[in-house]
Task: structure prediction
Amino acid sequence: EAQVTQNPRYLITVTGKKLTVTCSQNMNHEYMSWYRQDPGLGLRQIYYSMNVEVTDKGDVPEGYKVSRKEKRNFPLILESPSPNQTSLYFCASSLPGDGYTFGSGTRLTVV
Amino acid sequence: AQKVTQAQTEISVVEKEDVTLDCVYETRDTTYYLFWYKQPPSGELVFLIRRNSFDEQNEISGRYSWNFQKSTSSFNFTITASQVVDSAVYFCALSENKAAGNKLTFGGGTRVLVKP
Result:
């Protein structure tokens, strides 16, 4: 089944403890992206990647890192999480010019 | 800059009623793509439709239909004979051809509540 898989689905962590949210797609898509969804602010792009080893900042990249060492994986790294990064995170992938397929989301709480 | 506006924040209907969700967009690009996504209470984002700016044909898929009008920069979505399972938040989104990485700009979403 064609899909984008994110893990974990739910995560509660403490301020400052590094964490990684994994994302993998099995559709051989070139493009991958991370979004966060917050009440009143909607869905905003954090980082995106147009191919292996090609990543760039979206609208809200501060406090996040990504890597694209292989086509299928696009992990989101929070080196020192803070409470303002509590959010619902979505990974997505697509072909150029196509619609994004989204993962099921990761609900992150930073206390 | 691109922008998507969904003026209706919440719509409540009784089952079997039709419901139309409005979406108005702004872009300076001549080539762009419009999308609708559904976010059910479980939280995932489900792709519903993609339209490019050169294709103004309306589309029907089962109980769903979409009306794209370039002249008014609108891409409205109608659910016919609504069902309780249609209860969700619906997002309209825009991607400009020049946007790197297919960046999507989302509207604020419209919450649809279908009561039995």
Summary: The mean pLDDT of chain B is 93.
